[in-house]
UniProtKB/TrEMBL annotation:
Keywords: Redox-active center
Name used for this protein in its record: Tetratricopeptide repeat protein
Source organism of the structure: Scrofimicrobium canadense
Top-level taxon of the source organism: Bacteria
SUPFAM superfamilies hit by this protein: Thioredoxin-like
Length: 288
């Protein structure tokens, strides 16, 4: 039975890609084959992936739909595969739906991954890899694959390389489109409750909270409201200055903390990176 790897602290196993024990390489294949860049696999189409691996390296990602770690790993692996623009294909296998494949390949934990290169399995990782670890592993895989004559690519369109909107993001985005920012805040919080590692949702929640405050506060003259108004108008550094002044001068510690929290939130939304750097430096000086 495949079980989720619940050990904390990151990946449980990562190793270098090794094809040294493989047999004589086959003839190289041409690039630009018309197959999906990312797809799911079942027993009925598994042999097709073996055949595909004779042309382009295929990553098999083993997940469980009930595993939060699997959700996070899927997002990271898909993003890195798209960045390779067809040099490697990704095939996802839900072990709860396809236990036969997992048993045949002796998969013990999810998430985990192996590559198929010229029909040969190459272990990649168990656990939840970071983006840096994934990039390194795939780079090694692509350097090693030509040893087996695997030099082809998947023909990809711009649409395939674009990151799709997750289904869980559709409802909060619809609320945003309807200008219902309070509802959007609650929906983004729900997304993050189910997937705390969703970085896009974290940024979206901050933006939704900002917009909801703008709707609710109107022409309020509080420092926090004025900072929000300045930020919304594009005067980001002025908003930072106002909040930093409140942190420095407010007598009530609760007011200082509210200003600090609002500043941190706005810093995460800002586009003026130089202003962000200056504000962070001033905030550090004030706090320490």
């Amino acid at each position: 039975m495949v079980e989720e790897n619940v050990a904390s602290g990151g990946p449980s196993q990562f190793g270098a890609v090794d094809l040294s024990s493989a047999a004589q390489a086959s003839e190289p294949s041409g690039g630009g084959i018309n197959v999906p860049l990312i797809a799911t696999v079942n027993e009925a189409n598994f042999e097709e992936q073996m055949g595909l691996s004779q042309t382009v390296p295929v990553i098999l990602l083993f997940i469980s739909s009930a595993s939060l770690a699997s959700t996070q790993a899927t997002r990271e692996v898909e993003n890195v595969v798209r960045s390779q623009a067809g040099a490697v294909a990704l095939r996802t296998i839900d072990v709860s739906q396809e236990p036969g494949i997992a048993q045949a390949l002796q998969i013990q934990n999810v998430p985990s991954a192996m590559a198929l290169v010229a029909r040969r399995p190459v272990p990649l990782f168990e656990g939840a890899p970071t983006k840096e670890q994934l990039v390194s592993l795939i780079d090694q895989l692509l350097q090693a694959a030509p040893q087996l004559g695997v030099t082809g690519r998947v023909a990809v369109s711009e649409e395939q390389l674009e990151k799709p909107v997750p289904d869980t993001h559709l409802a909060p985005r619809a609320a945003e489109d309807a200008d219902n920012w309070e509802e959007a805040v609650q929906l983004w919080k729900k997304v993050l409750a189910n997937d705390p590692g969703d970085k896009e949702a974290k940024v979206a929640l901050s933006r939704a909270e900002f917009e909801a405050r703008q709707q609710a506060e109107g022409q309020s003259e509080s420092v926090l409201s004025r900072a929000d108004s300045l930020f919304a108008s594009g005067a980001e550094e002025q908003a930072f200055d106002l909040l930093l002044g409140e942190i420095a001068d407010a007598e009530d510690e609760a007011d200082k903390e509210k200003a600090r929290e609002r500043l941190v939130q706005l810093l995460g939304l800002a586009v003026d990176k130089d202003a962000v750097k200056r504000a962070r430096s001033r905030l550090t000086a004030l706090l320490f």
